Every structure is written in structure tokens, then in C-alpha cells.
Amino acid sequence: MRAEILRVYKSVHTWTGIVSGMALFIAFYAGALTVFKEPLARWASPPAQQAAVPLAQAQDLIVRTLRAEPAAARDFTLHLHDAENLPGRLSWQVRDPGADDHDGRHLRHFVATLDAEGRVAAQPVAPTQLGDFIDVLHRVVGLPVDNDPNRWLMGVVSALYALALVSGVVVLLPSLVKDFFALRVGRNLKRLWLDAHNVVGIVSLPFHLVMALTAVVFAFHDGIYALQDRLLHEGRLAGAFQRPAASAGAAPRDPATMRAPAELLAAVRAIAPSFVPTALQYQQAAGPRAIVRVWGQDESAVAPRARGGFVAVDPYSARIVNHDSLPGHQSAANQLISSFFALHMASFAGDPVKWLYFVLGLAGAWLFYSGNLLWIESRRKRGAEPPRRTRWMAAGTIGVCLGSVCGISATIAAAKWLPGLVADVAAGHRALYYAVFFAAIGWAFWRGSARGSVQLLWAAVVLTAAIPASSLLGVLAPGLGPWPPASAAALGVDLTAAVGAALLAWMAVATGRRVRHGPAPSVWAAPAAGTLSGTGR
């Protein structure tokens, strides 16, 4: 390949990576944690104050709740399993008028239970929003709100990401055979980092291509559907996914005549024995088009959503209405669409794939971090002070990347303290994350990239270690507020955080050694005493 063509691709790879790298670091770091969104929610939820209504009384609970709270008939959920993050057997949500469908800040949550005399008791609840907040950071590259403009920005970033991947492969092609897996360990740290950057990039290339392309589709899916509707379906696309309209004048139905949940589950079990139901979502339960989505998991098949798949059942006849979203029972076209969701959300093959995605997500974050650091290092000229723009780029990379790590660890660790300190826990999570995030950026510019990187890494160690420390405090001093883990999933969060803190400590020690003994002048070497040029102090 001609040298000038390679130079063009190298420039494309460098600048698309530089422009999108910091945003993608946040997306990948938060995305790796989002794979275990449910365990995070269980860790952040206090033990239930009262036992859930037994499943044998579920039908009675549904009927009494709908009589007391008719508005709940529009959409409510019957949970089949008990977990710390599920506030009760039956719950529903009310979205504020005009709120974005993806924005969970405008949802009010309610739960219903039966008291000792069998009377229904409905009350508002505030389930943890920790997992949802980290998911929002992942979906809109660190921005606070999941709305259309922010998703479009994520789509642009993802398009740049795809361009960086393709151009990077083209640049590496001439030396791919020679350099692949050539991890040259020695005194030349820049060469070692470049080798590691290339190996991680090539080995995880299929994963990154899937992430880039699906993220673009997710970001612009509303527009894609609208265009498809206009060009192919003549405005009738929405009707293809809905049940036939009820006949004019159809009378409301009495929920007391619905089949019991056990009958609905038996109907599903008859067509999908390996499908494990987790929840029954009733929609328009008192209307002529009542439907129940039986949600669940089937690890032997691809699920169309992160929470699994579902089969639609008529609650008044227990007849299977639709199984287009039932894992293992989809048409070829629906299976193809579900595969895109599953490949992005790791909703197939159970926990082994989730752990694989967790590792690949963290490796992806490191890929963008190392890419920026390599570009900064390439600006260094022997014996010359780094220019101000290089120092700012280095400080910005350190501040944004390590700031997001510190902010996420801080807001997770605070989950067991905020309920006793603030009225709006979800707002407390957001405020704490952004306070730590912007403080880290300010610190990196004030202290300079060299000293700031070491200090922010140690801050990340302390904040990440605070996650299991909060649980340990719940064991040793339960009166202080935090609570101990109540399940293996919650304990897994503590153990993973402890391992993460140890790895961050190793990085802090190694980075400190580089700052003290690395070649100078450099943005990664501590400036000599009294030197206050650029952003280094």
C-alpha cells in the first residue's frame, strides 16, 4: 500500500480516536458495569422490611389492587421472584406527562401488598436508580439525561468510533503478521504501550465492530423506523406490532375473571419448557385488548432485551397471542433483529458471556485511554518542554477518564449512605457523580497530568475500596446506616470492587514510578521543583 495512503488512514485513525476517545472511555467503562446492572441494584437496595405476598395469593392481590387503584390496570407487573431490589410482589409506574420515554427521572413508583386482614395496601416507593444512572452514562457518553439530542450525539461519537476502527486496521495491515502479538517488554514503554494497544484492538475487533454499529442504530432508531414506515409501510408500521383494534363499543372487562397467574405460566411452559419466567407484565388489564407479557430468561437461546424475552398471553383465556419475542421461538427476521440487541447487551448464554463482556468493556476503555496517551507521547521531542496544548490534552485525558472512574465508584459507594442523608436519592447519585467528575478534571489541570494521574488513581483506589468497606461497616456497625450484602449477587459486587481497588492500586504504584523516574521533560514526568510552566505545578 502506498505510503501517502497509509498516512491518510493514520491521520483519520488518530483524529477520530482523539475526538471520540474520552467520551468512549466513559461509555465503555460504564457499559462494563451495566452488564451487571441487576446485581448492582440488589447491592444498593436495603433488605425488605416485610415478606412479599405469597404467589398463591397473587390473583387475590391483583384483583383487590385494581379495585383500589384502577389506574394501575394500564400497566403493572407481578414479580415471580424475591430480591432486594424488588419492593413488593406487585408494582407499577406512572410517568409524568410529556416526559421522554427513555428518561427514568420522571417515573413515580408504587407497590401494593396485602395486610394481615387481607386488605390491599398501596404506597409510593423509591427503588434504587443506581444501575439506571450508570446505564444512562453508558448510553449517552457521560451526559446526565437520556433524551433524543444526547442519543444523537452518542450516534455521532459511535460513527467516529467505527471510522477509527476501520482506519486503524488499515494502518496495521502492512505489519499485521510481524507485529501481531509482538508484545515487546523492555525499557521503551512507548513501544510496549503501542504493542499492547494494537493487540487489544485486533483481538477485540469483532466486539468493537458490533458495539460501534449497534450503537449507531440504537442512537438513530426512531428516525430509522420513521423512514422505514414512510418508504416501505406507507405509515402502517406501528399497526403491525399491535393487536387488532377492539370492536366499537366493546365493554370493559372484570379483572376478577382473569385466569390465575399459575394458569398463564402453565400455558407458557407448555410451548417453552426451558424458558424461566421472572415477571408478568399486565397491560390494559381491564380493557378489551388486555395482554400479559410473561418475561423470562432462556440461556439456550438469544434474548431480544437485556432483561430477557417475553411471550404475550391473553389473561382471560390463557391463550398464547404472540411469541415473536420469546427466545428460541422467533421468526428468522425477528431472530436477526434480536441478535443485534443480544450482541450489544450480552443477553445470551448466561453469566460466562456477561463476564466476557465485562472484561472486553474494561479493555475497550483502556484502548481509548492508551490511544490518547500514545498520541500525547508522540508529541514529545527529546530535550524540549511539551507545548501547552499537549499538556492540556494530557490533563484533559487524565481528568475525564480517571474522573469518571472516581465518580462512578463514589456514587456506588454512596448508595448505602444516601437514603439516610437526602430526600431524593436518585438526584443525590447524579450530584455526587458530577461533583467528583468535574473536581477530578479541575485537579488534573491544576496539578498537571503527571502528578494528577497518580493522585487521581489513588483517589480511585480509596473510592472503589469504599464500596466493600460500606458493606463491611454494615456487618460491624449496622446502626450507622449501611447494610451487609443479603445475596450472593450483592456479595459479588463487593468482591469485584475489592479486586478493582487492588488493580487500581497497582496502576497507581506503576504510574508513580514512571512519574518519578521517567525521561524528562515530558507530560508524564513530575516537573522539577519551582517549575510552573503550562499546567504543571
Automatic annotation (TrEMBL):
Superkingdom assignment: Bacteria
Record keywords, A-Z: Membrane, Transmembrane, Transmembrane helix
Pfam family, one: PepSY_TM
Matching InterPro entries: PepSY-ass_TM
Transmembrane segments: 12-36, 152-177, 198-220, 355-376, 397-419, 431-449, 456-477, 489-509
Name of this chain's protein: PepSY-associated TM helix domain protein
Keyword Transmembrane helix: yes
Presence of keyword Transmembrane: yes
Record organism: Rubrivivax gelatinosus (strain NBRC 100245 / IL144)
